[in-house]
Amino acid sequence: MVRKIFSILMGILLCFSIASCGIAKKDITRAEEQKMQNEALQKPLEKPKEKISNTVNNAVYTNTENLDNTLYSWGLRVLPNHQTPEITPLAMELIKKYDAIFVGDTTKKVVYLTFDEGYENGYTPKILDILKENNVKAAFFVTGPYVKEQADLVKRMVEEGHIVGNHT
Which structural domain, as residue segments, surrounds residue 136? Predict the structure, then answer.
């Protein structure tokens, strides 16, 4: 009898839990979404509240106390009809200052291959083989644990002329 009552109560609790999942959702219109995105792009991120430890274990040390460490938000606004996405004027200023690339030559049809390497599932050697056979270069974004666990693959990526970037 107790087991039956417990089962019924658990069933009722489960029904209430499932029913309440969608109650507080707000429908956001495309205009509201765009407004929030624009606001987020315009304001810089807050600086961290805590100071990182001053201890240094590296053989080489650069005094970073006087370096600018202002955090900036990054994002782009997707436009309709395949138009070039927009970024904030501040982001464009930084891109020009550091001779970076945001959008390449839009008159050319180019495909950029990027791979997120968070873990190895046995496919990367074959991908590297295919890229090499076709003389194609790609960008591999790797995590810290991936670099430690798959050092030989990361070395191969670099040796074969691929870009290896930080995934974090």
Answer: 111-168
- Give domain status of residue 38, yes or no: yes
Is the pTM higher than 0.85? The answer reads no
Give the containing element (helix H, strand E) for 114. strand 114-117
d(CA 133, CA 125): 12
Q: Which strands make up the sheet holding 139-142, listed edge to edge?
A: 114-117, 139-142, 163-166
Q: Do both 97 and 136 map to the same domain?
A: no
Residues 72, 120: Cα–Cα separation, whole Å: 32
Q: Does residue 151 have a pLDDT over 90?
A: yes
Instruction: Inform me whether the pLDDT recorded for 32 exceeds 80.
Output: no
Mean pLDDT, to the nearest integer, of 44-59? 56
Q: Please indicate, yes or no, whether residues 119 and 149 belong to a single structural domain of this protein.
A: yes
Q: Which of 45, 40, 96, 43 is nearest to 71 (CA)?
A: 45
- Dist. CA 117–CA 1, nearest whole Å: 54
As a residue count, the chain comes to: 168
**Which of the listed ranges 16-20, 36-40, 108-112 does the model predict with the highest average pLDDT?**
108-112
The domain spanning residue 165 has which CATH number?
A: 3.40.50.1100
